[in-house]
Structure formats: structure tokens, C-alpha cells
């Protein structure tokens, strides 16, 4: 087959599929990229039937040749190059397999690939996060994990399930707080996959508030389901702070770890703080930051008045300026997420506004952190591509996991699994 133009997964837009009543966009790119990522191992068979169907339709559409029935090696090689020519490809000699649920921009994936892992399934519903994920890992996540159509693509025989699932209350009044009582929540979908696929280990991450959420009933139900309904050894969850693992951010999150009971694992020790002292200066932009990140005088005045009003009531709410020698507050989406992490940077030379602001750019050097600085606060290297607008980038990094803390905990999990494997040989 002679190619008329270079194929691209991003042009895999569903035009042909709409004519044939095949589900467009939600699954085609995800199936295709998952197939290509696993084409050299047995997991590819799980995606092969649908992937080849999509490929045939896509190549037919691109080449306007209705009698084409076989995907050429040329087409396949072009698409393979696209999924592999990324900043963070799968390790060549991977030693374990994992899946990434509620993946966001791939904080779990980055951490586990560094430890020698291969991701065999990813799910993330947000379109902008999918864009960032694809740019860095060459793979398009599947969408809504609550849909059976999505769950059917989860393969068998992976070692570790990772999920930073959202926190929701369960309706468990008068009930035992078991598997069935979690229906209608996103944890139920995680639990259902664990029940179906029986991975060796699980690694869940959530906000610190999960511990007391719904009067403690939410966490109690989660632990009851994992321990009793699903038969996993689950030690007491622990609050892990990102600042203890090499990034200058005071970010506390609850980690829940579990091991399938037949592995015989009965003890687990969460990672200790590394004792590495870091500060904002370690991740601060090295070059002059664009003027758009500096606050206007009028907005700064508003923030000061807001803080003064709360201070008069005895509250500590309001903006905060992080010194170069300090560490950031937890970066979060919405509210005062960015204003709680303002910094001083006197390197600005051009005070001409580059965005529509009220008033002039402040002369005190007060600015927001940049998306790249937020990326560094979460432990993402500078090679990590940010292909989206700032507003989406802040949301994505604010919702992400702290990569070094995830990596340190995952290493502990893998050490136990590998030790168990060695004993069985």
C-alpha cells in the first residue's frame, strides 16, 4: 500500500466510524494506543480484535481505498513510532504490570515506570488530562470507568492496581458497610475491578479528609470491603506528606495499600521521611517569568482586604507569600489555590500588562507560581510536556499525586511482591 500522507493517531477522529455506527472517540484512540503499547507482549491480544478493526477503517478512510482490508506494515510502523516517541516511554525490560485508574496526568504511571513497571490499562475521563497524558506517555486513556464498555477493556494478569479515586460518602445507615453498599460511588468501580481481576496488590490515594469523611464511615467501609469482601491484607492507612519525599510542598494525602491474602504478606511498612531539606528556591523558575503571572495592584488590594476581614474575625484565611527559603502550601484547584502560594520575584523588567487586568502590574514583585513550578512541586521533571492552557495545567497539577511520595511507597509494595515471588520459585 502506498501511503498518501503520514498517519497520526490524533487524526483518528471517528469520521469513518460514525458512518458504520461504531463508537467514536471514547474508545477508538484508547484501544489503538493500548494495543500498540502492548504489541510485543501478550496483553495486546486483549485489545487486538477491536484495534485491528479500527485500524482497518482508519487506514481505509485515510487512503480512500474501499477495497483495503489489511493494515500495512508501513501504516503500523508509523503509528508505533508515534506512541513510542514520547518523553516517558515504557521501560524496555519491565518487571511488573500495573493499571492506572483515575489517572489524571499520570503521576502514578511516572512513578511506577521509574521502578520498572509497564502500564497495561489507563482510565481518565477528563479530555484535557487525556491530552496531557497522551503527549507524555503516547497512550490515550479510556474514559468513564463506571461504564461496562470501559471495564471490559481491563486486561487480566496485572500485578498492581493504582487509583487516586475521588472521595464520596456511602449510604450505609443501618447496613454492614460492605461491597454492595458502595454501589453508586466511584470506589465501587475500583472494588469491582479488584474483585474481577484479583491483582497481587492495590495502591489507593485520596485526600487526607477521607479519614474523617462522613464521620469515619467512608474509610471504614472501604477497609471492610478490601479486607473482608475482597480478601486482601490491608494495613492501617497512613498520611504521607510530599515534603518528606523531596519536594517543597506541604501536601498530606492518605495512602491505602493492600495485598492479596494468598500471597502470605502480613506486614507492611510505609516509607520513612527522606530527611532531604528542599525549599521553593530549588524549583523556582531560572529565567524571568512572563508579566502575565504578576498580580495587578487592584487585585492585590482586594486580596489584602479579604485577608484583613478574616483576620478581624480570628480566621487565618487569605493569600500567602511563600519565601524562597520556605515550602509551598498544598496546591489545590479552586478557592485560594494559587493565592495561597504567591511568591516574590523582583526580576520583572516589563510592567506592561499582557492580559486584561484592572489597574497596573504591582511593583512589589508579587506573582503567582507558574504551571511549571506547580509541576515541580509535584515532582514532575522538566521534560514533562504541558500541552494545555494555563488554566487546565493548574487544574491538572493541582489534582495530581506527588510523584516522589508515590514512588517511595510503590517501591515498598514491590519489594514485598518480589520477595514473595522469589520464595515461590
Automatic annotation (TrEMBL):
It is an enzyme of class 2 (transferase). The active site is at 167. The keyword Hydrolase does not apply. GO terms for biological process: DNA restriction-modification system; methylation. Signal peptide: none annotated. SUPFAM superfamilies: S-adenosyl-L-methionine-dependent methyltransferases (SSF53335). Its EC number is 2.1.1.37. GO terms for molecular function: DNA (cytosine-5-)-methyltransferase activity. Belongs to the class I-like SAM-binding methyltransferase superfamily. C5-methyltransferase family. NCBIfam families: dcm. This is Cytosine-specific methyltransferase. It comes from Flavobacterium cerinum.
